[in-house]
């Protein structure tokens, strides 16, 4: 029966994490490591999933049971993506889905959002619906919110649109920015962070000290707006200064860690334009922007601080069919 292979990129947030959850902007770039999903139609009204990267093997259930009962963690995003799609665009066939990832889910590159986007794009093509990027974004973002309850959707936008984006909460603004690749070095802290736990941690503080958090978010917003301008001018020195200031804000928010601080400080000492954590904090990755001739030194210092340097391409293409 008919089948399709679709892939979508992972992401790294450049500036604006946390405040972007609260009606504010961020900058995000799509990274070269991709999630790949094969979807095959079948005659039995059954949903089958193989996602060995997240320990889901031989998982099956009837299409009418989607989203019901115990759903293994690794199957959630794919299963709820199919459920939401089928509720909006009902179909009779069964589905065999296989997912593979070029990056580990531990890095915080957004594997869940990328697989959600792949499934919706694949079903849209298989059912000849040709959904627009915004329609794919809306359905994928709804799926992420159904599961996580929280999140700005910037990772979903990066998977759909690719490139480098200026993004406002929930997709109120999704603006592709004309840049080539970014002079970025990425370091993994070795610690897997849980985004929802960190969002909740900041929210609790917001209840106790609303003015403090509001003030930090206002500062981050100014940094994001200025960074957008510098990104378009490719003024990496100014962009780096803004990254450093954002890192100070994130430390004040309480989401950085000693390890992330050591990695970012090490990068700046080695001559990076700027460095900061990228994502929810508490672990995952940090990013540095650095001149070509300083990259090696920057990478060495990130490793000295206990980080693992991950080679990535930036500003890559969004969700696409693989022929
Ligand atoms: C997590 O990668 C970034 C946060 O801003 C959450 C989100 O925007 O969904 C903390």
Quick recap:
The protein is built from 9 helices and 12 strands.
Structure description:
The protein is an alpha+beta fold. It has 2 domains: 3-179 and 315-322, Ribosomal Protein S5, domain 2 (2-Layer Sandwich), CATH 3.30.230; 184-310, 2-Layer Sandwich (Alpha-Beta Plaits), CATH 3.30.70. 41% of the residues lie in helices and 26% in strands. The protein has helices at 76-88, 111-126, 133-148, 154-161, 195-208, 210-233, 236-253, 258-269, 295-304; strands at residues 3-15, 25-42, 46-51, 56-62, 94-101, 164-168, 173-177, 184-188, 274-278, 285-289, 308-310, 320-322. Strands 1, 2, 3, 4, 5, 6, 7 and 12 form an 8-stranded mixed beta sheet that branches. A hairpin with a 4-residue loop joins strand 3 and strand 4 (56-62). The protein is globular. It starts with a strand and ends with a strand. The chain binds (R)-mevalonate. (R)-mevalonate is lined by residues 13, 17-18, 20-21, 151-152, 154, 195, 199, 279-280.
């Amino acid at each position: 029966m008919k089948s399709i292979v679709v892939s979508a990129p992972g992401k790294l947030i450049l500036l604006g994490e946390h405040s972007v959850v609260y009606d504010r902007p961020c900058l995000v770039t799509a990274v070269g490591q991709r999630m790949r999903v094969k979807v095959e139609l079948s005659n039995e009204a059954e949903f089958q999933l193989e996602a060995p990267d997240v320990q889901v093997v031989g998982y099956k259930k009837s299409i009418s049971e989607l989203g019901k009962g115990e759903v293994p963690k690794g199957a959630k995003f794919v299963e709820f993506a199919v459920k939401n799609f089928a509720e909006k665009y009902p179909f009779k066939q069964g589905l065999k889905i296989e997912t593979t990832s070029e990056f580990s889910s531990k890095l915080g590159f957004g594997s869940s959002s990328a697989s959600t986007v792949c499934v919706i794009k694949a079903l849209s093509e298989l059912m000849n619906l040709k959904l627009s990027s915004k329609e794919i974004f809306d359905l994928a973002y709804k799926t992420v919110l159904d599961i996580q309850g929280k999140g700005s959707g910037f990772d979903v936008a990066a998977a759909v649109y690719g490139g480098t984006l200026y993004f406002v909460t929930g997709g109120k603004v999704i603006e592709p920015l004309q840049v080539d690749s970014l002079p970025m070095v990425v370091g993994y802290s070795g610690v897997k962070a849980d985004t929802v736990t960190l969002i909740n941690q900041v929210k609790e503080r917001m209840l106790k000290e609303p003015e403090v958090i509001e003030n930090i978010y206002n500062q981050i917003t100014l940094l994001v707006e200025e960074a957008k301008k510098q990104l378009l001018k490719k003024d990496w020195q100014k962009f780096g200064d803004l990254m450093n200031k954002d890192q100070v804000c994130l430390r004040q928010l309480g989401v950085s860690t000693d390890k992330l601080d050591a990695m970012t400080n090490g990068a700046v000492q080695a001559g990076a334009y700027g460095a900061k954590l990228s994502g929810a904090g508490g672990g995952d990755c940090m990013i540095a922007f650095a001149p070509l001739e300083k990259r090696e030194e920057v990478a060495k210092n990130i490793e000295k601080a206990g980080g693992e340097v991950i080679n990535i391409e930036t500003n890559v293409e969004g969700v696409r069919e693989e022929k």
